[in-house]
Every structure is written in structure tokens, then in C-alpha cells.
Design a protein that fits this description.
By secondary structure, this protein is an all-alpha fold. Helices cover 70% and strands 0% of the residues. The protein is built from 13 helices and no strands.
Length: 286
Amino acid sequence: MTPAPRADGRGWLVAPALVCLVAMFVYPFAYGLFLSFQPMEGGGVFANYLKFFSEPTLWPTVIITLKLAVPATLINVGASIPAAFALRKSTRASKFVTMLLVIPVTLGTVLIADGMLTYYGPNGWFPQALHALGLYHDEVRLTHNFWGVLISLVISGFPFAFLLILSYVTGIDPTLARAAGTLGAGPWQQFRLIYLPLLVPGLTMAACLSFVQAFSVFPSAVLLGVPAGATRVVSIAAYEAAFESYDYSLASCVAIVMGFVQLLIVAGMLGARRAFYSGPTTGGKG
């Protein structure tokens, strides 16, 4: 008679992680979703969502946030590709430049915003340098408007996209491109036919992370933008509902809409990736 196999107790090792996941992510999300269907002013379970999509001060915040997040994502990912190729070789110079490029990661959005107010403000170093060199004579306004927030998103988001794409670029075997070169492929053909298809997973991940980070912008939109006007992003609408109107139900509704839009865009990018790449979905370099 064959003895019954003993139960594998190693599965319990993941129990602490599951408890943390439920306590820190699943429960807050479920509670927020439930709260969004409990309008403070009554009117039915969908009253908050009807209010969000009918109020001219609420639904446009999604459009404003997309106008900031999409260009920031394109700039961060697009600028990271040539930078990663230029710095893929492990030399002292490339390590030094890479260290300089990732410094903004350590600063935080508030410190970046404070530095931008000094550097790009009306009397900052950058406008004064342009005027002194005679390159521009009118007033330079790069803070407290759309451009100030966009620049801050690029400064804070570029290092993440660059480091992720650099890891993928350095993982591609350069002998593939050299072999293509022996067959007559030029640099552009090598990039388009060899590097780009292998980089699609990394570019997609970098774009998803960069977009989610930019879409949740809050400190920069307040410190460098116009919170009541051109840069009134969706996170500001949620903050005002929660901490100025004390309508946590409406704030939860705004947060759910915010998360749904991000999920929609990220799912679209992951779906588009499959049209260009059919290899491993995770964990692979190149």
C-alpha cells in the first residue's frame, strides 16, 4: 500500500505576502469602489458617476491629464532610446553620464518643482541666460502653466524609462547586428529589423510605467501649474472633493474613474505590443 503524499507546507510562505496584498491593495480598492456607489447627497447608486460626467469642472480633468501624460510618455520613452544606445557600452564615461541622468530619481517631485521655480521662473537663471545671449527677448514663462508641469514630468519620469530601456538594450546580443551588417544591412536597417522588434517588450513596459506615473501627477500640477485652470488634473479634482468638500464618496468616484482610464490606456498599449512582438511577455531582455 502506497503511503499518501505529505502536504507541501512551503505554500504557507506566501501567506504574509497575500495578507499584505489584501490589506494594502485589495481592501482599499474594494472599499473605495463601494464608497463611490454611496453618494453623500443621495440620488441613486450612480449619482456620483453621473455628476462626474456631467459637471464641467470634473470630466474635463481627464482630458487635461491625458494632454500632460501622453506627451510626457512619448518624450520620456523616445528620448530614452538614443540615450540607451549611446550609453550601452560599459565605460567610465557612460557610467558617469548614466549616474547624472538618474539623479532626478533621488530628488522627488517637490524638490524638482522647487528647483524649477528657481531655474525656469520669470527671474530665473534660464530666462536671464536667454536674454543675456540675445536668443529671446520676450518674457519667458515656463512655470505656473502647462509647460512647467510637462517639463517636470519629463525630468522626473525620464530616469525610470531610461534605466528600463537601457537594461533591455544591453541584453541584446550585438553579434546579431554585426551578422546583419555582414549581409549588407545598414545601421537603420539593423535598428528597424533587429533591435526594435526585440525592444518592443521593454518599450511597452517603459511606456506603461511612464504613463501611469505621469497620469497620477499631483505636486507638480499644484506647484508648477495652474491648479484652478490649465493644469487642473484629475488628482486635483479628487483632492478637492475629499479634503475641501469632504465628499469622500465623490472623491472615491473620481479615483475609480482615474484608475479605469489608466487601465484602459495600459491595456491598449499591451494589446498593441502583441501586434509587433510574440515572444516572452516578461522577464526577458530583448
